[in-house]
Amino acid sequence: MNGRAVKAIVLAAGRGKRMGSGVPKQYLQLGGREVLYYSLKAFEESGVDQVILVTGTDEVSWCRESLVEKYGFSKVKQVIEGGRERYDSVYAGLLAAGPCDYVLIHDGARPFVTGEIIERVLSGAEEYGSCTAGMPVKDTIKVVDAAGMAEDAPDRKSLWAVQTPQGFSYPVILEAHKRFREGDFQIPVTDDTMLAEVFLRKRTKLVEGSYKNIKVTTPEDMELAEVFLGKEGL
Description:
Elements: E1 6-12, E2 29-30, E3 33-34, H1 35-44, E4 50-55, H2 60-71, E5 76-81, H3 86-97, E6 102-107, H4 115-128, E7 130-136, E8 143-144, E9 150-152, E10 160-169, H5 170-182, H6 192-200, E11 205-208, H7 219-232
Parallel strand pairs: 1-4, 1-6, 4-5, 7-11
Antiparallel strand pairs: 2-3, 6-10, 7-10, 8-9
């Protein structure tokens, strides 16, 4: 893309315990295809050069044969084994992705990512070095103490719900992950922009995602995804 090497890491190594299913959430059937199919399709049709699919230890061959080869995802150049935690899987993907100029990191359980969202995040990564999709929150948010008592209600105008993909200059996010792994840090790592912010003091640009760009985590999410799929006609 514009003479620059852009790669995407799609994460599909999670077990999806909150789904309450024997099948990991990314492999559940949504409209007759796996949830993961839709994310891979979006990146296949985007301007990224290559996709690295990170999956569970016992699922590498299945993903290669039953997803990548079956659906002809030619941009998926590698299907690799992830790690115990999400950040381990991201780091494995980053090592597999190098060298490149920019990298996008996406949760495979977000089936409604679009080419427009991917392009906005990539543009933000090119300009700012760290960028994520997100949307302003609709609900009032309360900060609570350990006893569940409200302590504060932040101004909703300043609050965004963070989504994926998240995009970075490759050297920035690789260095952030290396610094995190070098120490005995106990911070909860819920996304990758956090590592860039904490370890490199790299501010993150937020760009518009979509309220439909949900992460399928619970049975209720699957019901909502079916509704969205029907409207999208994917």
